[in-house]
């Protein structure tokens, strides 16, 4: 790829992704947490335990990722500036609200406790003498918003079921999200395979079309009465054909702490 093309692609990726990060990083320890999905090894909602203990926000903080838990990643707490309130996000199709709210970490249902983290992959070192290649390598890093929400009774099971149904209804045709007036068009939802917890779901989410398209990854899983949701993007990946790997190291580390 020519240097000018790489620089153009990198710049577009940075602008698109940073803009979405500013609106997508909803989540905190007190407020915003929030074709079908894939399932983990224990994907049977009916097999939920008879009694589920909901964790408080303080307990979820202890179960949240901390710096050093994921090799090669920087972990930080979400702050007030990251919070997406329910009224901040609107979706043009009612059936698409659960999946749309999940992107932004908007609280769904009535969780007892919440917690949130931002996890950013460290840039890959590129010894190439070509500045364009070096820049592309630096941008090839995945950032994830991780939110935890704990529910009493079968609240967590219902949350995953609601998300699965919403994705199935909204996989084709697309829908539009509005975050404080900033609109994003979801053009495609594609199911992906993921494992973790007692049940897990994952999708590739495409926002925009053609060269202006940006891929995201959404993972949501349940461990007992806690739902962990991961919304990720990669600064170096743009375009309808672009893709990147699920943040499995982040998912695995969070499941281990919830375990």
Summarize the helices and strands and which ones pair or pack:
Blueprint: H1 3-24, H2 57-63, E1 73-77, E2 89-91, H3 97-104, E3 113-121, H4 131-139, E4 142-150, H5 155-170, E5 175-179, E6 182-191, E7 199-207, E8 214-223, E9 226-234, H6 248-258
Antiparallel strand pairs: 1-3, 2-5, 3-4, 4-9, 5-6, 6-7, 7-8, 8-9
Concise synopsis of the structure shown:
The protein has a nine-stranded antiparallel sheet, with helices on both faces.
General description of the model:
Strands 1-3-4-9-8-7-6-5-2 form a nine-stranded antiparallel β-sheet, sandwiched between helices. The longest helix has 22 residues, at 3-24. The protein is globular, with a radius of gyration of 18 Å. Residues 1-50 have low confidence and may be disordered. The protein is an alpha+beta fold. Helices cover 28% and strands 27% of the residues. It has six helices and nine strands. Helix 3 (97-104) crosses helix 5 (155-170). Strand 7 (199-207) and strand 8 form a beta hairpin.
Note the run of SSEs as H and E.
Answer: HHEEHEHEHEEEEEH
Oligomer: single chain
Mean pLDDT: 82
Q: Beta fraction of the residues?
A: 25-35%
Rg: 18 Å
Provide the helix percentage: 25-40%
Helical stretch tally: 6
């Amino acid at each position: 790829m020519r240097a000018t093309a790489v620089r153009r692609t990198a710049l577009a990726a940075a602008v698109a992704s940073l803009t979405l990060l500013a609106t997508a990083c909803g989540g905190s320890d007190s407020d915003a947490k929030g074709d079908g999905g894939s399932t983990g090894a224990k994907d049977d909602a009916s097999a939920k335990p008879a009694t589920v203990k909901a964790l408080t926000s303080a307990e979820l903080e202890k179960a949240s990722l901390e710096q050093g838990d994921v090799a090669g990643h920087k972990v930080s707490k979400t702050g007030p500036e990251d919070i997406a309130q329910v009224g901040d996000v609107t979706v043009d199709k009612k059936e698409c609200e659960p999946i749309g709210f999940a992107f932004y970490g908007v609280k769904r249902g009535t969780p007892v406790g919440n917690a949130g983290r931002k996890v950013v992959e460290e840039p890959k070192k590129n010894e190439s003498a070509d500045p364009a290649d070096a820049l592309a390598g630096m941008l090839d890093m995945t950032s994830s918003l991780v939110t935890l929400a704990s529910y009493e009774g079968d609240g967590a099971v219902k949350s995953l079921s609601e998300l699965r149904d919403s994705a199935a209804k909204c996989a084709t045709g697309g829908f539009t999200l509005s975050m404080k007036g900033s609109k994003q068009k979801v053009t495609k939802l594609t199911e992906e395979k993921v494992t973790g917890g007692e049940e897990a779901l994952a999708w590739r989410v495409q926002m925009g079309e053609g060269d202006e398209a940006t891929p995201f990854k959404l993972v949501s899983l349940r461990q007992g009465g806690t739902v962990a949701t991961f919304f990720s993007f990669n600064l170096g990946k743009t375009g309808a054909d672009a893709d990147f790997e699920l943040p499995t190291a982040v998912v695995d580390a969070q499941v281990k702490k919830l375990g």
